[in-house]
Structure formats: structure tokens, C-alpha cells
Amino acid sequence: MKIIVTGGAGFIGSAVIRHIIKNTNSYVLNIDKLTYAGNLESLAEIEDSANYSFKQIDICDATTIEQAFNEFQPNLIMHLAAESHVDRSIDGPAEFINTNIVGTYTLLEVARKYWQGLDDADRSSFRFHHISTDEVYGDLEGTTDLFTEKTPYAPSSPYSASKASSDHLVRAWYRTYGLPVVITNCSNNYGPFHFPEKLIPLVILNALDGKELPIYGKGDQIRDWLYVEDHARALYKVVTEGAIGETYNIGGHNEKQNIDVVKTICQILDELKPQSNGQPYESLITFVKDRPGHDLRYAIDATKIKNVLGWTPQETFDSGIRKTVDWYLNNLEWCQRVQDGSYQRERLGVQP
Ligand code: NAD
User: Fold this and answer.
1) CB–CB of 153/88 below 8 Å?
2) Quick one: pLDDT at residue 275?
3) How far does the centroid of ligand 1 lie from the alpha carbon of residue 6, in Å?
4) Of these residues, 135, 295, 301, 315, which one is catalytic?
5) Which of 302, 28, 17, 326 lies closest to 185, judged by CA?
6) Which residue minimizes the CA distance to atom 42 of ligand 1?
7) CA gap 179, 169 in Å, rounded
8) In whole angstroms, what is the distance from residue 281 CA to residue 272 CA?
9) Buried b (16+ CB within 10 A) or exposed e, 12-26
């Protein structure tokens, strides 16, 4: 298989590429613009593989994307490139509209032209896999419901609205042009190489620095946490075995309130790296003004992917969060280079 992965220098994309290169014989071309969220250092362990290559391209640049398709001749596309941080989408939605909507449209058009030019055998095995989020379904406040593949869309933030738009485009390209697509909508990921501004790494790194651990509102928001390596396995299964035109929800069966996530991290750190002043890390927790439009609860029903494709997560939240804290304790240099900006300065040739 030859697989184009867009957004492969990001958190989930890099986990997908590490998974494919380490566990299969497939070739991967990573297409990534390298925004602030793209970090090639997350791919260090596989970057020398003969099965891996990288091109720095913006998915909105149709001409260069088309050249890359024609040179690489992919069998499969896994589209993860996106602006992904809800807080950033509230401060500046424009990039979210460009990358998530216009970028996905551009990629669909390039893929359609390329797919139509393939011979019969390659055309029937080609897949365009769009990776999306459970946030397109909106909020489950006050219910015990779970998001299924049939839940109506009701996005709340500029981020989730832009992802919802891109999902609609992908389905339209299937219905109208017959492009062979599969879509996945997953819950909150966590694990190694997560950008330090996101909740779990932020809490770990602030705690180690003795800084406040900021929690939105009362910390009662519920998310269904999915270990990123479980997600990477699921995505490879869907792109290689999923049925054309189908959507699969992917979740970790781990509904947790944010406050409990933070307290669990504090307890693991108390055990592995106690504060020198003898205080428990929980004493650093600080409640801050809630995010506007903050959804209270997301929870995924992942029955379909389990029954149809035989995928279930291997990590419980307890095992996954322990692995994650452990990874951050052992990879503080990776974090340091993100926090001080050197991961970007060096690739841009800028002196510190
Ligand atoms: P990320 O922000 O860590 O990575 C995104 C990657 O896309 C970066 O490497 C960035 O450089 C690249 N990119 C951004 N704009 C680009 C452009 N115009 N052209 C080419 N590359 C571009 O995101 P992530 O957390 O790895 O998420 C990956 C995908 O999964 C996204 O589509 C996101 O919506 C979806 N998702 C993420 C989560 C989560 O918990 N992280 C949950 C559900 C769905």
C-alpha cells in the first residue's frame, strides 16, 4: 500500500505514521504544512525508514498537492490535517475555515481527479479516509445518551462547525461523484507527543514546574478519553477494511470529568515525582472562567466499529494515563523544545 497521510506531523497523524511504519509494509508520504502544531521531531524514530517520506505542503495548494499525488501514486489517503484547537478557533476562526473547509475541498477535488484517472483495479481499491471529531454532534448535557453514527450534527464552536462542514463535503463527494470515502469521528485523544497547550500535557508540565493547574469552570465537563495509539490502530483498520461510504465512531469507553482527569494526574505524579515542598499536586488546582459555548458532555457509542471491524481499545484510562505521565517524565526535552519554540526555529533556519 502507498498511503498519503495529511497532518502527519501533528499529534494523531504522527501516531498513525509511527504505527504504519513499525507494523506494516506500507509506504507513507506525510503531507504537512508544519503550522505551530506540526513537529517533525515526533517522527524521529521512523524518519530514516525507506518506507517514509515527507513533503511540506499546504492542503489548500491544489497544484502542489496534485503533483504530490501524481509522483507518489497513492492507494489510500488518510486526511488528518486540520486546525484542531477549540480555544484557538474562538480567538481566530479564519484559519479553521481555510484549512478545515477549503483545504478538505481542495484535497477532495485533487483526489477525485486522480481517482478518475486510475485503472479499474486501482480505482476500486482507492479510499479517501476523512478523520473527524465527535464534537460535530454537539453537547449531551443532561442525558445519558451516546453519540452514534446517526446522531444529528449540532456543532457549537468554530472548530467543530468547520469539521462538520468538512464531513458534509466528504459525504457529498461520495454521493455525487462516487469518490470512495470512509469517515471516522473520534473522541478526545491523549498520549505521547501531545502538544503542551492541551489539557493533559499542560497539567503534567505545569505541575512539574510548580505552576497553577487551570481548570475551566467547575471542571465538570465530561469527555470520553481515547489513547492515541488505540486510535491509530483503529484508523488503519478503517482505511484498509472499512466499507465505502460508511462512518465509524471511535471512542475509548472512558467517560471522565475534567476535574477527575486532573486529580488522577496529580496522584500519579505524587507517587512518581513528589513535590519537594511535600504538598500534594492537587494544591495547585485553580478554577478559571469557563470557555464560551463550552459543551458539557461528549460520549461515543463505539459498537459499530467493534461489531463490524473487530476493533476495541486496548488501554483503560488508568493504564493509558499512567503510560502518558510516564512518557512526559521521560521526554521532557521534547516538551522543552516545543515550549521554547526551538522545534520551529531550527526548521525555519532562525537563530534563537
Ligand atoms: P494537530 O493540531 O496536533 O495536528 C494537525 C496537523 O495538521 C499539524 O501537523 C499541522 O501542521 C497540520 N496542518 C494544519 N494546517 C495544515 C494545512 N493547511 N496543510 C497541511 N497541513 C496542515 O491535530 P491532531 O490532534 O493530531 O488532530 C488530527 C485530526 O484529528 C484533526 O483533523 C482533528 O480534527 C481530528 N481529531 C482530533 C482529536 C484530538 O483529541 N486531538 C479528536 C477528534 C478528532
Assistant:
1) no
2) 96
3) 9
4) 135
5) 302
6) 188
7) 11
8) 12
9) bbbbbbbbbbeeeeb
| H helical segments located in 145-255 | 158-177, 199-208, 228-241
Atom number of ligand 1 nearest to Cα 79: 32
Is 105 noted as a catalytic residue in this protein? Answer: no
Whether residue 9 contacts residue 34, with contact meaning beta carbons closer than 8 Å, is answered with yes
Cα end-to-end distance, the chain, whole Å: 41
Between the CA of 83 and the centroid of ligand 1 the distance, in Å, is 6
Ligand 1 centroid – CA 223 distance (Å): 18
Q: Is 79 helix (H, G, I), strand (E, B) or coil?
A: strand
What the block records as the C-alpha cell of 150 is: 446517526
Whether residue 346 has pLDDT greater than 80: no
Cα-flanking dihedrals φ and ψ of residue 111, to 5°?
-65, -40
Distance, CA 90 to ligand 1 centroid (Å)?
Answer: 16
pLDDT in the model for residue 345: 73
Residues 51, 23: Cα–Cα separation, whole Å:
12
| Pocket around ligand 1 at a 6 A CB cut-off | 6-7, 9-13, 32-35, 37-38, 58-60, 80-84, 99, 103, 131, 133, 163, 186, 188-189, 195
Output the pTM of the full model.
Answer: 0.96
C-alpha 208/C-alpha 204 separation (Å) is 6
Closest ligand 1 atom to Cα of 58: 19
Q: How far is the centre of ligand 1, averaged over its atoms, from the C-alpha of 277 (Å)? A: 39
Write out the three cell numbers for 235.
484508523
Size (the chain), residues: 352
Q: Which of 58, 83, 134, 224 is catalytic?
A: 134
The question of whether 346 is a catalytic residue gets the answer no
Task: List the domains of the chain with CATH numbers.
Answer: 2-191+225-251+295-316 (3.40.50.720)
User: Is 83 among the catalytic positions?
Assistant: no
The two beta strands, 127-133 and 76-79, are parallel
What are 2-27's pLDDT values in tens digits? 999 999 999 999 999 999 999 999 99
227, three cell numbers: 489513547
The dihedral formed by the CA atoms of 224, 307, 138 and 218, expressed in degrees to the nearest 10: -20
User: What is the chain's Cα-based Rg?
Assistant: 20
